[in-house]
Amino acid sequence: MSGTVLITGCNRGLGLEFAYQYARDGWRVHACARDLVRAEDLLALEARFPEQVQLHTLDVNKDGQIKALDRVLGDETIDLLINNAGYYGPKGVCFGKVERELWRQVLETNTLSPLMLTQALYPRIATSKLKTVAFLSSKVGSISDNQSGGGYYYRSSKTALNQVVKSLSIDLEGAAIKVVALHPGWVQTDMGGENALITPEESVTSLRGLLQQLDMEQSGRFLNYDGTVIDW
Ligand SMILES: NC(=O)c1ccc[n+]([C@@H]2O[C@H](COP(=O)([O-])OP(=O)(O)OC[C@H]3O[C@@H](n4cnc5c(N)ncnc54)[C@H](OP(=O)(O)O)[C@@H]3O)[C@@H](O)[C@H]2O)c1
């Protein structure tokens, strides 16, 4: 099975691995990053798969860039949208040190922008064959899993994202669009750090397997990369 995928945050980490694996397997890949000039690995991927990979400048927080992307896509449909771009914000911020503006930036990137992009690209997804929207969430956004407190910026942004995913899955059910929140595992990327448990290759291979088998029954779920359901 192949189709057209659009992925945000493709210059490094999980986004780069998603772009690579889909291109390798014959998909058409719209790979977005906010600074293409400095995206060496992504430029190398485009050079390796020139027929399949198309690069786009996209800071997900900029509505003008979302509009420009939509224009450039012409009449293409998008089978699979992967809202991957994410921002942890400053680490180790404990109660008493929370700053409004820093919190706002994390919410903007992780919660608001994925929905704004999905809304802008919706007609392309609705008219595609596979009709799937994936959101990279995180287990630390699970309220029932929160045993250690803290992490105000990132945790709250992913918890709110999960609520967005749930609503969207209900709203898009009539259009037969599958919508899921995915936890990629603790992955060795800049965000996950070097002590993380799995490689981007392992995570993305599993996530792609899940996405390939996804049906409407699973729409609206919060899924771990191994396919198990995570409690909200
Ligand atoms: N790694 C883990 O263990 C882990 C665990 C749970 C969930 N996740 C989630 O998985 C996703 C990918 O994480 P990762 O580990 O690959 O993180 P990463 O290595 O920190 O990469 C983050 C990516 O998001 C991009 N990004 C950030 N803000 C952006 C913006 N405003 N516009 C466009 N792109 C932006 C970054 O681009 P720049 O280079 O321009 O900053 C980068 O490409 C995130 O949503 C993250 O929350 C990761």
Outline the secondary-structure elements.
Blueprint: E1 4-7, H1 13-24, E2 28-33, H2 40-48, E3 53-57, H3 63-72, E4 80-83, H4 100-126, E5 132-136, H5 152-171, E6 178-183, H6 200-213, E7 222-224
Parallel strand pairs: 1-2, 1-4, 2-3, 4-5, 5-6, 6-7
Bound molecules: NADP nicotinamide-adenine-dinucleotide phosphate.
Pfam families: adh_short
Organism: Marinobacterium maritimum
Protein name: SDR family oxidoreductase
Describe this structure in words.
- The protein is an alpha/beta fold and 232 residues long.
- It has a single domain (4-224), classed as NAD(P)-binding Rossmann-like Domain (Rossmann fold, 3-Layer(aba) Sandwich).
- Helix content is 40%, strand content 14%.
- The chain has helices at residues 13-24, 40-48, 63-72, 100-126, 152-171, 200-213, and strands spanning 4-7, 28-33, 53-57, 80-83, 132-136, 178-183, 222-224.
- The protein has a 7-stranded parallel β-sheet, sandwiched between helices.
- Helix 1 (13-24) links the parallel strand 1 and strand 2.
